[in-house]
Specification:
Helix content of chain B: 55-70%
Oligomer: heterodimer
Radius of gyration of chain A: 20 Å
Strand content of chain B: 5-15%
Strand content of chain A: 25-35%
Distance between the termini of chain B: 45 Å
Shape of chain A: elongated
Chain lengths: ~130, ~170
C-alpha cells in the first residue's frame, strides 16, 4: 500500500500529474496534501511533468463568450440578456482543436493585442495604449 | 557485458530467479528482468537469486507480465503494447496501489509512469470526499479551516459536477 497521508514518493508522483484545477481542489483533502501542493519543490516537479508532455504550442485567437448568468435571475426573458464578453481562445497548433477559452482581466473592446512572450504558462500580452499616436 | 552478449549468441540465456515475499520463485531471462533498475544493480553485484521482500506473489506476477511484454517492444508492435498497457491499468485502486508501490521499489520507470498517470487520470474529476475514501485519508481540518482553504481557491471547487464514485 502506498503512503497517502503524508504523501510518499508514489502519491507525490501521482499528484504531480494532475491539472492545476484538481490540485487546488485537493488542497482540501488534508493538511499534508495542502502543504505538499504549495511546496516549491512540488510546484517545480508539476511544471516539469506538464511541460514534458507538451512539446507543441498553442495558437491564440480573439473570440467571444456568451454569458448567460443573468437568465437565472429573470426567468421570463430569454437569451437577450446574455452578455457578450470578449475573450481569447487557445487552440492546439497541431489539430486546431479548441483547448480553452480565457477571459481577459483587463479587456478593452476593439483593441488588438500583441503577444510579447510566455513562460511556464503565463502569457504576456501588450495592449498598445497609444496606438493612435503611433 | 561481453559474457552476456556471447552467451545469447550461443543460445544460452542467463536465467535469474525472483522470489516473492510469499516465498514463490519465478525463473526469468536476465534480459527481461534488467528493465528493473533495482534488480539490474543486484545482477551486477553477482546475485542470481533475488529475494523481493516487499512484493507479494500476486503483484510480482503482474509485474513479470508487464516486463515480459515490454521486453518484446519493437517499432512494429507499438499498437499492441499500447493496448496491453490499457488493459494493465484496469484493476481496482487497491491493486494499482500495490503495483505502483512495487514499481517504485523496483525502479521500473516505464511502469511507474504508466501507473501514476492512470491513477491521476482516474482521480482527476473526483470529489474531495471520494479522494479521501479512495486513499483512506481522514480529514484533519476543522470545519472552519476547511472552509478557509476552499475559499482561497473557490474557483477550483465550482467546476461543475465532481465524481463521487470510488472506482
Amino acid at each position: 500500500m502506498i503512503s497517502a497521508d503524508p504523501p510518499g514518493d508514489e502519491m507525490t508522483n501521482i499528484l504531480s500529474r494532475l491539472p492545476v484545477e484538481a490540485l487546488m481542489q485537493f488542497r482540501s483533502v488534508c493538511k499534508s496534501w495542502c502543504n505538499l501542493i504549495r511546496d516549491p519543490h512540488f510546484v517545480n516537479m508539476h511544471m516539469n511533468q506538464h511541460s514534458s508532455f507538451r512539446e507543441s504550442g498553442y495558437l491564440m485567437g480573439k473570440d467571444i463568450i456568451l454569458d448567460f448568468t443573468e437568465i437565472k435571475e429573470c426567468k421570463d426573458i430569454i437569451l437577450d440578456v446574455a452578455e457578450i464578453k470578449e475573450c481569447c481562445t487557445l487552440y492546439s497548433d497541431e489539430t486546431f482543436a479548441e483547448h480553452k477559452k480565457m477571459e481577459f482581466p483587463l479587456w478593452e473592446s476593439t483593441k488588438s493585442f500583441e503577444i510579447i512572450g510566455c513562460c511556464n504558462g503565463v502569457i504576456f500580452l501588450l495592449y498598445p495604449f497609444n496606438s493612435s499616436i503611433l | 557485458m561481453a559474457s552476456s552478449s556471447s552467451s545469447s549468441k550461443t543460445g544460452l540465456k542467463k536465467m535469474l530467479t525472483l522470489k516473492s515475499s510469499d516465498g514463490d520463485e519465478f525463473e526469468l531471462e536476465e534480459s527481461i528482468v534488467i528493465q528493473c533498475q533495482t534488480i539490474k544493480h543486484m545482477v551486477e553485484d553477482g546475485f542470481s537469486l533475488i529475494p523481493l521482500q516487499n512484493v507479494d506473489t500476486k503483484t510480482l506476477t503482474k509485474i513479470i507480465e508487464y516486463m515480459k511484454k515490454h521486453a518484446e517492444k519493437t517499432e512494429s508492435n507499438k499498437e499492441e503494447i499500447k493496448n496491453f498497457n490499457k488493459e494493465f491499468v484496469k484493476g481496482s485502486f487497491d491493486d494499482q496501489f500495490e503495483l505502483v508501490s512495487a514499481a517504485n521499489y523496483l525502479h521500473i520507470n516505464g511502469l511507474m509512469d504508466l501507473l501514476c498517470q492512470s491513477i491521476a487520470d482516474r482521480i482527476n474529476n473526483k470529489s474531495v470526499r471520494a479522494v479521501r475514501e479512495i486513499f483512506n485519508i481522514s480529514n484533519d481540518y476543522t470545519p472552519d479551516e476547511e472552509e478557509k482553504v476552499r475559499d482561497e481557491h473557490k474557483w477550483a471547487h465550482e467546476g461543475g459536477e465532481f465524481d463521487e464514485s470510488l472506482d
